[in-house]
Amino acid sequence: MPLTLHQRRIGLTGGIATGKSTVAALLEERFRLPVLDADRFAREALAPGSTGAKAVLARYGERVRAQRDGPRVAGDPGPTLDRAALGRIVFADAAERVWLEGLVHPLVRARFAADLAALAAAPVVVLMIPLLFEAGLEGLCSEVWLVDCGAAEQLRRLQARDGLAETEARARIAAQWPMARKRARADVVIDNSCSTSHLLLQLNDLLPSERARRSR
Questions:
Q1: Which of 9, 176, 195, 211 is nearest to 90 (CA)?
Q2: What is the CATH number for 206?
């Protein structure tokens, strides 16, 4: 997709549990920038009753079907996926992960194309894409910002956030590119090992024109 000359497109990426969502929230709330979230698009691609959810259920069956709280009612879109169970399958088997990415990534790309077209007049847009490098989506962006933290802190955050054992958490980190490889390809590395105020100082330096606009 060719970039419009007037638009700054910031690709926001990082490792799992390095704090991408925290940075995205600051960009949206403090700098009033539109944020397109690949994770949200992926969740919508697997929403109950969606083509994606039906494909997943056809492949994995009851292993990934969430338990229903009550009987099905009129208007119910269909079975809900147990995302934790699906995650255990795809993070334990690289071939299954490739299959799922092949299903979801085209749907996510289509959402990005539609939303970017709707935001064509916006001077700055943030594209939060956890697998930006892995999926080869750098071409959507005019620059890439990497949210980084120490390896031990990343592991601790992931275990705390998702309730994972250390072995499982390490496997999920290993399923993505190493952070050193991502750092080498990023235009900007944001240190998220400290406080929110430290994050804001970095963002203010990166977006001086947006900071000035907010102050008017």
A1: 176
A2: 3.40.50.300
The pLDDT of residue 1 is 44
Count of all residues that appear for the chain in the document:
216
What 3-state class would DSSP assign to 189?
A: strand
More confident call, 75 vs 61: 61
What gap in Å lies between CA 71 and CA 69, rounded to an integer?
7
- 55 domain-assigned: yes
Q: How far, in whole angstroms, is CA 205 from its chain's centroid? A: 24
d(CA 191, CA 210): 20
What amino acid occupies position 83?
R
pTM for this prediction: 0.87
Q: Do residues 128 and 210 both lie within one domain? A: yes
- The one-letter code for the residue type at 114 is A
Domains identified in the chain, total number: 2
CB neighbour burial string for 87-98, b if at least 16 within 10 angstroms, e if fewer = bbbbbeeeeeee
- Show the domain range for 213: 7-34+124-216
Query: What's residue 212's pLDDT?
Result: 55
Token pair belonging to 108: 């996510």
- How far does Cα 84 stand from its chain's mean position? 16
pLDDT (average), residues 82-88: 94
Q: Retrieve residue 83's tokens.
A: 């995302």
